[in-house]
Write a structure and sequence with these properties.
There is one protein chain. With 94 residues, the chain is mainly α. The chain has one domain. Helices cover 45% and strands 4% of the residues. The chain has 4 helices and 2 strands, in the order H-H-H-H-E-E. A two-stranded antiparallel ribbon has the order 1-2. The N and C termini lie far apart (34 Å). The relative contact order is 0.15.
């Protein structure tokens, strides 16, 4: 998926995922087809310069944002305590 065919809803979700500490760039690539450099370009385009700078400082070298740097026992994209997500909508608990 390229940036040109992303809906505003997709862009919002990518930005949300990029800000989350536990969501890797690889997870974003699996769901939306955007590599890390594409996510960085999107964030630069969509955010205010100060917010982008803060985000970049936060994500640079962070082990939780890169699957290769993660601990080997972490095999999920989200926290185990996070509610189930289906089609980007939070499911209601029974």
């Amino acid at each position: 998926m390229t940036e040109e065919i992303l809906t505003p809803k997709d862009i919002d979700r990518i930005i949300e995922m990029a800000w989350e500490d536990r969501t890797t760039f690889e997870a974003i690539e699996v769901q939306f087809g955007l590599k890390q450099q594409d996510v960085i370009k999107l964030m630069r385009k969509e955010m205010k310069p100060a917010s982008f700078k803060l985000w970049r400082e936060r994500t640079k070298g962070r082990s939780t944002k890169h699957a290769a740097l993660r601990d080997g026992d972490v095999d999920r994209f989200k926290c185990s305590r996070q509610r189930t997500i289906s089609m980007n909508r939070i499911s209601k608990r029974s």
